[in-house]
Amino acid sequence: MTEPHSHLTPFAHAAQNRCFGCGPANPTGLRLEFLLAEDNSVVSLATVSAAFEGHPGYLHGGVIATLIDETMSKAVRARGLTAMTGQMEINYRRPVPSQSPIRLEGRVVRSEGRKHWTEAKILNSKGAELAHGKGLYIELRPR
Predict the structure, then answer these.
(1) What is the model's pTM?
(2) Is residue 86 part of a domain?
(3) 68-87 in b/e burial notation, b at 16+ Cβ within 10 A?
């Protein structure tokens, strides 16, 4: 793995959250748990079930996109903001194995008004980058 972030703290979710990516109340979701680093980046240490495979032994590309999307979204949420995906680009570098430990890392790289540009990556247990994403998240504001 890459150098661990120092002082990671749990990033809490509402118990009734049904989000496919992180919701503990979604029995068929990924149930990702995120940690917050001192620099406001987010980390998730996950092992994704074979139920989410495309080719045997490897995660489906849509699930990989979901992992990247969820990680970038959490990076915005770590700033106390709620935002929705406006645009996302994924570079699939290597197949992502199912049932093996992976590390998700995400951060906000720039903000301008309601727009937040982010990036995230998926690493294997040896620290090799398996996928990388960039996204634009649009902050939701009360009406």
Answers:
(1) 0.90
(2) yes
(3) bbbbbbbbbbbeebebeeee
